[in-house]
Recover the amino acids of this structure.
């Protein structure tokens, strides 16, 4: 019958979609994606909390797959790591950012911070230092302040991390601890590494305003960062109430949909304005 035909058509569509998605999860697809320019970068503004001025952006990668559509980075980054493809993928990211740099210079002042996420598989690869050097050399000289974002879990993974972080500092880069509060914190490492920023995971930020009392862990994280002389960045700020509370706690930087979603380069250069709500 017609109905059955439609039904099987629908089912077929769903199935093909599923199969394509599964197929897209072969390592080769990532390499093809790189070749065919399926990856691009979005930039999310970060504002300092006193005057709510944009001080920089975080680069967030996107994969626009021709059949599967937008594949979220949470899915393809860990997949690339599992397929031993995180190094070529991150090198590609570096090239994309370098290509965007002239446009970025038009909206970001000299000294603006450019946040770049580094996956653990790349951090601990043999070519890491060389890749970073090449990336830096591909950017306009002395313009951006590169902040490498590394998740909490990578700090505890490797003893060699200490040497790598020292090297990054010597080369003039800054380091942020990403998703802080979600990993198994080894606070001793935090003290030893002397990193620059602590990014408060959005899970904590979400809870502001929804609970009668804010999280004691959030309070402790903010206090800890201050004691360690680290600047704080609150992630996932979505409401005026959250922004207000975080500003009152003197969290240094704010990032989230309330200020701006991640933007395509063209949207960013069209001009971003921030308004202060009460
Ligand atoms: P992340 O580093 O914690 O990045 C912040 C994520 O939160 C981004 O998701 C961003 O779009 C999202 N976000 C920002 N503001 C808000 C908000 O107000 N509310 C909510 N609900 N979400 C918000 P995205 O772009 O999907 O990236 C997810 C994760 O994938 C990133 O988490 C990062 O760990 C990883 N990732 C993204 N791009 C790259 C990359 O180029 N390299 C590496 N190694 N990892 C990347
Ligand atoms: Ca990040
Ligand atoms: Ca994060
Ligand atoms: Ca995250």
């Amino acid at each position: 019958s017609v109905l059955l035909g439609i039904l099987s058509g629908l089912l077929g569509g769903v199935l093909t979609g599923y199969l394509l998605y599964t197929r897209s999860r072969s390592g080769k697809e990532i390499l093809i994606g790189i070749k065919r320019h399926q990856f691009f970068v979005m930039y999310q503004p970060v504002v300092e909390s006193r005057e709510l001025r944009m001080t920089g952006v975080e680069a967030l990668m996107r994969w626009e797959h021709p059949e599967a559509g937008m594949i979220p980075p949470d899915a393809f980054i860990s997949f690339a790591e599992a397929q031993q493809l995180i190094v070529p993928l991150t090198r590609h990211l570096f090239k994309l950012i370098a290509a965007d740099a002239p446009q970025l210079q038009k909206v970001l002042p000299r000294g603006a911070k450019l946040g770049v996420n580094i996956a653990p598989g790349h951090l601990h690869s043999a070519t890491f230092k060389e890749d970073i050097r090449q990336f830096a050399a591909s950017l306009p000289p002395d313009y951006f302040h590169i902040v490498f974002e590394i998740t909490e879990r990578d700090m505890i993974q490797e003893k060699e991390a200490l040497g790598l972080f020292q090297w990054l500092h010597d080369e003039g880069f800054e380091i942020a601890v990403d998703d802080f509060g979600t990993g198994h914190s080894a606070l001793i490492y935090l003290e030893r590494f002397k990193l620059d920023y602590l990014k408060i995971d959005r899970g904590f930020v979400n809870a502001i305003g929804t609970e009668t009392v804010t999280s004691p862990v959030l309070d402790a994280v903010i206090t800890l960062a201050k004691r360690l002389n680290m600047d704080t960045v609150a992630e996932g700020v979505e409401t005026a109430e959250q922004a207000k509370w975080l500003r009152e706690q003197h969290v240094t930087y704010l990032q989230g949909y309330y200020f701006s979603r991640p933007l395509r380069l063209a949207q960013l250069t069209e001009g971003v304005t921030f308004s202060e709500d009460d």
